[in-house]
Design goal:
72% of the residues lie in helices and 0% in strands. The protein has one domain. By secondary structure, the protein is an all-alpha fold. The protein is globular and about 45 Å long.
Amino acid sequence: MDYLLSGVIGYLLGSVSCGLLLVKLICGIDIRDYGSHNIGATNVFRTVGARMASFVLLGDLLKGVLALYLVNHYVSSDLTVLILCATCAILGHSFSWMCGFKGGKGVATGLGILLYFMPEVAVFALTIWLATVFVTRYVSLGSILAALAAPFSAWYLGYDGRLVAFVGLCAAVVVARHYQNMIRLKNGTESKIRQGHWKK
């Protein structure tokens, strides 16, 4: 029962599409109709600007933290149960029932989960992401490098093998979901990050 409940909590909270809900509520548009058609903070930044993107990023990050907090305090503190919850939260974000079982790439929600499980790894990965985006202006490249760095830093810092394996699997998924971005990076056609300015 603990596994089932943790999975349901993780998926339902992960499925809350902050990009879809906040942009539609405040700007009156469906973010899926613009830019890359993605619900994540990057497309929100390019379409309606930094302020809205920061809210979406924070919301996507916190829903992973909230799911783990609820399961840890009200269901079970067993690490395997928590990892299942985290997995389902990322799946919920990536395959949200609110978006017809489509969604984002799970980077922000994954960062929230890292913050909950391994704050040092999260800070390290975020630093790599920020440095890469600042230098290259490619969000996708920053996300890929940060994802790849996370399991190695988790292993180096001596975290539980189950957490290292979980982070490694998440990194593989993030990289796989950036496959088209990698092709565009190789071909020199990937879009650099630029802030949008939405006007009704």
